[in-house]
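Input set for joint prediction.
Command: fold jointly, output tokens.
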Amino acid sequence: MQVNSRRTQAERNAATRTALLAAARCAFADKGFAAAGTEDIAAAAGASRGALYHHFADKTALLDAVVAEIAVEISVAVEAEADAATSPLAALKRGAHAFLREALRPDRRRVYLIDAPAALGWSRWRAIDAASGMGGLRAGVAAAHPRADAEAVTVLISGALNEAALLLAEHSHGADLAARVEAAIDALIDGLFEAER
Amino acid sequence: MQVNSRRTQAERNAATRTALLAAARCAFADKGFAAAGTEDIAAAAGASRGALYHHFADKTALLDAVVAEIAVEISVAVEAEADAATSPLAALKRGAHAFLREALRPDRRRVYLIDAPAALGWSRWRAIDAASGMGGLRAGVAAAHPRADAEAVTVLISGALNEAALLLAEHSHGADLAARVEAAIDALIDGLFEAER
DNA sequence: CATGATACATACTGTATGTTTGTTTTTGTA
DNA sequence: TACAAAAACAAACATACAGTATGTATCATG
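tokens >
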């Protein structure tokens, strides 16, 4: 089909890069980072392993890019939800619910919540979503409770949400559990910021 | 040195098995699960790869055993601390602090909190510490707040504690942060169970 | 239009896992 | 006690995958 012929180099570059990213994201979500082979990823992207290693330093650099992509997607959805709230406390709750919905998606949860910390290292993983997603959470915490220890509280909420998303992912059948978890999250947030109301 | 000669088979079995477990635990903690080679592990245990694969089905089975070991260790320490408390709420707080201290240790945190969910799968990881560690947390939650949704609340607290341990592990210099995180955890627990006091 | 740079493709190498086959030692039994 | 069966281990083999090095085609540029 020669989709890459008669194009400027920037276009070719972007085209194969995005194709590789999409294929990698699919493979990582489907089989996990370790079990996904670069051969299959390149083939699914309609490219060769050489192209892959031209665009990315190694396999973990590819994961890094995929994770950053996911982090931004989640962040955008969460921010949109939080901005629609009237109070800082409501913004936190709505944002938390949105995070659950977004992080739960099968094309995201394993890559973002499980494989990323292991393959990239926890500190790198943390830096990625501090640059996109969790920055918003931290700001929300500070807004809802100016005297709180924003760093510590943010980490606790973030960890609780991550674990909740993984639990819900396992029990995909049962909106009942989802509702109970959301209620518990509201109770957690309310409790943390009750002194400030 | 022929430490394994002139012994009963059960003794030989136990000796090499524990040696393999110890070596694997050290290697996993030091280099991570993926980067630790079975060759090095077997050598450190004074055995061959053949022995390793005689005792464990594959590399992940070895990790599984190490993780289970760690889970029990943490559970014992947490239970001891919780049992020394006078009220259910105090038991939760003391148990949480103990969990932080125990899970934080360099020979545990990476294996237990990072590599285990990725390599064993989240559900298997959850099953392991539900059988040992988290069973106690859930009982503590139920004791402190009989009307609470024990499953949901337990997951949130567990996730918050895991993430807090990883944060503290990164900033090992600074007992200041540790104190702030512990205070935030107390606030979280107090807030969650305030309605019950 | 010629030269260089960029984007890719192919072939190769090293390493690590898991398997298979073989050897030694123990254990049950005739 | 002799022998057979099974366990515990050792070593060689096969396979697969990541990363690299080299080669080629396409585009940019003076």
